[in-house]
Amino acid sequence: MRLGYHMSTTGGYKKQVAKAVEIGAETLQVFVGSPTSWRLGALDERALHQSSCILHEAGIKPLVVHAAYLINMASKDEDNFVKSRDLLQDSLLRTSLIGSPYLIVHVGSHGGEGLDYGLKRIDDMLAQLRPAWPDGVTLLLENTAGAGNTIGSSFEELSSIIRNAHEPEWLGICLDTCHAWASGYRVADAAGWSETIKRFDASLGLGRLKVLHINDSKTDFASKRDRHAFIGEGSIGIEGFRAMMQIAQLAELPGILETPDTGDYQGYSHDIDLLRQLRDESHAFLD
């Protein structure tokens, strides 16, 4: 498993990538604009290409892009739906230009209108986006913790989105460990992980799984609350991540930390070192 974290771009890619290499990151996740704005800023293709080159020279791969949190693909409000579609379309383009194969998105909330309504809205948006879809970019639907009216907390809901879109190759899944735990998947030990992988494969097929978000949880099992913790310091615990590293089907995936950013990189550095140790231990288990 290639290990990395969500990288800030403050100070520029060159500075931040150098820090990532120092920490030992092998993969990274970024935003291509503000995660809380409807506008990504002026499109600068040259700057995006330069950023791609910096990452390539550092041996960072793959680069993963995360879409803005404002996007709601299931919105019942037409203005919000259109703004979400346009922002997602711009994000797909920039993901392509920066040389990333993956754009991760939280699909959103049906706003009380019901799951079937929300799934139909998501399908409508995907159909509108398809004609201008950039080659080489896969949109990854991220599982959610299950709070409120959000869609995607179960593998079955995520499968419905992909099935409604006629199972295209340009849709995949990002599995967040904290969200999985909070929504009712037991990923705190080997038996729980085994069952979770079986359920994922039955609903979606493991070929759809492209990226892992590796986060411990500050809240208890099935809490429906999304609160990330440092690895081994939450309710999933170190044994959950040791078991994760021993699953052969996950061994080739990029694993992205979204643990709390302390501003000094010490958290990321500690967690990458810890996960690398678990990864090294898993080699003997897998062999």
Give a brief outline of the structure.
This protein is of the alpha/beta class and 287 residues long. It is 42% helix and 15% strand. It starts with a strand and ends with a helix.
Detailed description of the structure:
- The protein starts with a strand and ends with a helix.
- It is of the alpha/beta class and 287 residues long.
- It is globular, with a radius of gyration of 18 Å.
- It contains nine helices and ten strands.
- The protein has helices spanning 13-23, 45-58, 78-97, 115-129, 155-164, 177-183, 190-203, 238-245, 266-286, and strands spanning 2-6, 27-30, 63-66, 102-105, 138-142, 171-176, 209-214, 216-217, 228-229, 254-257.
- Helix content is 42%, strand content 15%.
- The mean pLDDT is 96.
Number of helices: 9
Radius of gyration computed on alpha carbons: 18 Å
Major beta sheet, strand line-up = 1-2-3-4-5-6-7-10
Give the helices and strands as they follow along the chain: EHEHEHEHEHEHHEEEHEH
Which regions are unreliable across 5 or more consecutive residues at pLDDT < 50?
A: none
- Structural class per helix/strand content? alpha/beta
Binned, the helix content reads 40-55%
CATH classification class: Alpha Beta
Please tell me what the overall shape is. globular
Secondary structure layout plus pairing:
Blueprint: E1 2-6, H1 13-23, E2 27-30, H2 45-58, E3 63-66, H3 78-97, E4 102-105, H4 115-129, E5 138-142, H5 155-164, E6 171-176, H6 177-183, H7 190-203, E7 209-214, E8 216-217, E9 228-229, H8 238-245, E10 254-257, H9 266-286
Parallel strand pairs: 1-2, 1-10, 2-3, 3-4, 4-5, 5-6, 6-7, 7-10
Antiparallel strand pairs: 8-9
